[in-house]
Design brief:
Length: 110
């Protein structure tokens, strides 16, 4: 998110990615990424509120209809969010934050 915030602050008129077409509306593009990441974070927090404690179960709930070959990548994305949430003192893990760990909200939801 910090990288996206830095990009959003720039006033570039075009982004030239390493693959794919030029991005001619960079701020709009970055805002869409930020919104998507916030939605994913909210989904992960909803999982935790519902008692879903593992990355695998979160992937199952958040990525309905996902191609099975993409499950591992989705799990890594969820884990990255969880690591960020741990760093912000919102989530805790039962040990090291790994795909096998169990996670929970640090404070009970209201």
């Amino acid at each position: 998110m910090a990288s996206l915030d830095k990009l959003l602050a720039r006033r570039d008129t075009v982004f030239w990615p390493t693959h794919g077409p030029a991005i001619t509306e960079p701020q709009r593009h970055v805002r869409a990424f930020i919104a998507h990441r916030r939605e994913r974070e909210a989904g992960i927090i909803d999982c935790l509120k519902a008692g879903i404690e593992t990355v695998d179960k979160m992937v199952e709930r958040l990525y309905v209809g996902l191609n099975p070959s993409l499950r591992r990548a989705a799990g890594r994305s969820v884990l990255a969010h969880l690591i960020d949430l741990i760093g912000r003192d919102i989530v805790t893990a039962d040990g090291p934050a790994t795909v096998e760990a169990h996670f929970r909200l640090r404070h009970k939801p209201r």
